Amino acid sequence: MRKGEFRVIQSMTGFAAGKGAEAGYSWAWDLRSVNGKGLDLRLRVPDWIEGLEPKLREKLSKALARGNVTLSLRVSREEVTSQLAVNEAALSSAITALKRIEAEAMEQGLSLAPSTPSDILTLRGVYETASNEGESKSLLPILLNEAEALIADFQVMRGREGTALAEILTRQLDEVTALVTASEDAATARRAEAAANLRAALARVIENTDNVDEGRVAQELAMIAVKTDVTEELDRLRAHVSAARELLGAKGPVGRKFDFLMQEFNREANTLCSKAQSPVLTRIGLEMKTVIDQMREQVQNVE
């Protein structure tokens, strides 16, 4: 992927809406999502349209991999004719159920919006018409066809959000790369000073200790030098940057892989700070941790 080019990774944040009307009915769609660890589908659709909800779930599951997704569909009858008949038993049951729900909500300290007559009429079985069953069957393919277009618009918006995320993540990866280079320079400058300090420490030990094993002391000091070397951490950070750039150009959902990679970034930055033993290197390590934390926040929105 050349610099300045961004693959449209998918964001988990998106929104789409639509309206339609046919056969004496009108409806409105609302599809939106926010980030989530998995795919959580929440559908609010008329239950009197047989087969609508499971087919919509199937379509959404095929199109999406992650996110807390909410789909709402409100269907209204444009004209109520003399053919409409209220099912008294179903109406009574519906009102009783609504009262129970409202009472329970009040006990739990929740406030619910009042139900309207049109809300009650959309409940399954409350009203009946001679042609209701036939209308339901005729609406199903129309609504499913519209759902395809709605999901496509939704994916377009998520793609736009994903493009913006890719640009942000690319800039942040550039910052990490620059900080790794600065860390290498600081570590090189520190190396000469650290060697001088170790030689001075060795001389003090030999001078103030009788029968000292100079070889053993030198070996211990060499081990200390190895423990403070940050070459491996910087090499791994460069490898993580390369892996992250590859994910930005990969096909399919990459959010979980990014989550794991951010943990590895953070681990190496923490180790770098703990080994720094230099004000300059410590400052660079802390700057790197800040950028990595910002990246982790952005990655939470990647599908």
Q: Mind explaining what this structure looks like?
A:
By secondary structure, the chain is of the alpha+beta class. It has two domains: 14-158, no CATH class; 163-299, no CATH class. 62% of the residues lie in helices and 13% in strands. The chain has eight helices and six strands; from the N terminus they run βββαββααβααααα. The strands form two sheets. It has a four-stranded mixed beta sheet with strand order 1-2-4-3, covered by helices on one side. Strands 5-6 form a two-stranded antiparallel sheet. Strand 1 and strand 2 (25-34) form a beta hairpin. Helix 4 packs antiparallel against helix 5. The radius of gyration is 32 Å and the shape is elongated. Residues 1-7 have low confidence and may be disordered.
